[in-house]
Amino acid sequence: MRKLLIIVFLTGIVLSTYGQIGLDRFQKKQSKKIELNYSDPKEYEIAEITVSGVEYLDNNALISLSGLKVGDKIKIPGEAISNAVKNLWKQRILGDVKVNITKVQGDKVYLELALKEQPRLSTYQITGVNKTTQENLQDEIGLIRGSVVTDVLKKNTELSIRKYFVEKGFPKADIDIKQIADTALSNYAKLNIDIDKGVKVRVHEISFEGNDNYNAVKLRSKMKKTNEYARVSIFKDLFSRLFTFKPKTIGDAFTPEGSLTKDKFTEYMNEHVKLNFFNSTKFIPKEYRNDKNLLLDFYNSKGYRDAEIISDTVYYKDDRNINVHIKVDEGKRYYFRDIIWTGNYLYTDETLSAVLGIEKGDVYDKEKLSKRLNFDPTGSRDINSLYTDNGYLFFNIQPVEVLVEGDSIDIEMRIMEGGIATIDQVLVKGNNQTHDHVVLRELSTRPGDKFSRSNLIKTNQRLAQLGFFDPEQIEPQYFPDPENSTVDIHWVLAEQSNDQIELSGGWGGIYGFVGTLGLSLNNFSAKNLFDLSKWKPVPRGDGQRLSIRVQASGRQYQSYSFSFQEPWLGGRNPNAFSVNLSHTVVRSGASFFDPTSFTGSLKLTSLSVGLGRRVRWPDDFFQVSNSLAFSVYNLDNYPYLGLSVDDGKFKSLTLNTTISRSSIDNPIYTRSGSSISLSVALTPPFSSFDFSEDAEVEETDEVNEWIEYHKWDLDISYFTPIVGDLVFHAKANFGFLGTYNIDKGISPFERYVMGGSGLAGTNFQIGQEIIALRGYEDNAVTPPAYSGSASPAGDEIYGGVVFSKYTMELRYPISTNPGATIYVLGFSEAGNNWNNYQDFNPFNLYRSAGVGARIFMPAFGLIGIDWAYGFDRLPGQLGTSGPQFHFTIGNQLR
């Protein structure tokens, strides 16, 4: 009974607890305290609301934001007051919020919003770092003039700056933010942000524990962004060991604690010789977490499905270096045993197993299993494509581990085939300048067709090859409707300008300064040419190409060209119609004292008309194009082509046929795909025509004015991704120039000139085809100035009749931004050029290697610079070709 009385007494105290709200500086205004019963709130009517503590904010607006208004009936204590405080805090413009009761009269209450106004930001200054870093930080922190300066704003600013420097490799950056009143503006403040970024911290060593099956060298290579910094300390270490102890064998110099093994030697070399000069060695926590996942992915791909990282430690070796220690538990290695298919009615177990490509006893690789089921980036067919290419969009497959016994795993493939999905609607978004019909005619996904994943991929490639849209942002979105067995496809595009203006000047050797002015409109609209309302700033949107180019060096060299292409002649089929017209004049023989006096000239006028068409056999990537070209060469005292005469008119009528196949995914920075092209140029065999005896002399003179030849060119390119965005590119080019009449000889026109960047010769030499070979001077690998088998041939015709060239490149993108695509490359190259068929040897090549960079800007096209080293000596040279710099413009085919 006594205990019960005590409990009742204490409960009464709790229930009769009283509180006071806002009595501190307002007690002088009232005669007695306001007693509040928290266990039994009382209802009051708000009679008045006042605001104190603010000068620059509107009182009525603040009262409205609080959610309280005169006449409201609220309970005190209650949620209305609490919500008012929360509502005002949400505005983030106040430094303190209180709700005070100033007076109570009966059931009416008088409230005061006691607020503390925060100053606004007038300006801020960043010190302690260079101007470039200041500009980067301004974008990073995003401070805006007029923002309310709160502790939260300052803290967020500090965190943003700290994050920036951590990602740059400065985890110990010291950031001091001081708030100073702005005396020029009332209720405004300045922020002085002083930064001491400290020293850059690098990863010194990454060590592992528990890695019984893979050495540390292998595991480190799987971590893409967390790398040890480059260093070579082997000589210092060996020198130290020689004076520390006396090794009895060479092996003891490396491992004095025991016998030298392959693993110990590899580990020793990796510890003291680190040549990863091109990898980042900064320690970034986010990237480190990703790298740990990559480490586990590697173990899983090798069959260690239970592998885990037990612990990892990151600690400072010294002020500038971090060590990372990772302890792994590899677990057991597993293998595939039985693979069981269920739910498959369309394809047999044998067909599915053949496409899957996994045999009993193969290492249990989850990544490989996922690729073979869903999407294989190598281009091999997978289970998903087997179904979705035939319309089974709603197909689903779930691999389930049904039995784990010892080191073997049985997998059950549970398939739900679903029904065939038909495309209902196809929409195109983002083509703000390109007309809808230009995009729609490239689509392989049309309403009423069966859904096909391969058609989605094919359409993506076609849209990228147009060059009108950013390839990185082409996104097919599809919205399936299982109830109606239909799917809507939305193509989301982002326009990019690929029109180009060329305004340049350069030194053209014997031609002096050469100026170039060119305009290429690659999404032109001829039908809107005379409708000024469609000029933006030129008529655009129909996918046609118009190019005008003028190049000149005074009267000594002049070139004019015009070309137009309609890729869909008639608008119904992909028949590419083209017209090209050009006129070039080269004058020679000017004296030193009178540069304007010329004694000879060569003029070339050409007109060609072409028609090309996509074909569906053997597949949709093939294209056949034909063109007919007529050219006239006028020689006036021009002895530089090696002809028997220096004057005359030579005409050429040529039929050109090209069969090509291209499956590249991106014309600017290609990651995958291939391209192959076989071109044949044929003139009529005029010398074989049977003319009558009566007109023999007259007709023979006429025949000699016609050029005759047959020319064959083969170009092959192949692209494949290696790791991430690193791309391997292999290329081979071959050319052959033949004659119908051996007695007449091979034509002096259309010969091959090799060497250098392939740029200078293309601009200034006519009647010849220029082949680049980096590492050697422009046109240096060209007979007869060079002959692969003998000394210079003297009066032989300039240029080769057969060539071969091979190239291998590794490319890596720096930026894929459509405004400026930049990538670097390393390459090796080999080629040769012969002036007769007897000397042709595809293995007698001139080799080179080097590095380079490319930048593509829509307004200027592709611009490149290469440094190459020529390893071989050309006949007539004293030594090897050595280092050469090359500048290129455009995406060169050869």
Automatic annotation (TrEMBL):
Which part of the chain is the POTRA domain?
44-118, 421-496
Which superkingdom does the taxonomy of this entry point to?
Bacteria
The family database entries (Gene3D superfamilies) matched by this protein are listed as: membrane protein fhac (3.10.20.310), membrane protein fhac: a member of the omp85/tpsb transporter family (2.40.160.50)
Keyword annotations for this protein? Cell outer membrane, Membrane, Signal, Transmembrane, Transmembrane beta strand
Biological process (GO) annotations held by this record are: membrane assembly
The yes or no answer to whether the keyword Transmembrane is present is: yes
| InterPro entries from the UniProt entry | BamA/TamA_POTRA, D15-like, OM_assembly_BamA, POTRA
Compartments where located: Membrane
Q: Does the keyword Membrane apply?
A: yes
What is the protein's major site of localization? membrane
What is the official name of this protein in its record?
Answer: Outer membrane protein assembly factor BamA
Q: Which organism is it from?
A: Marinigracilibium pacificum
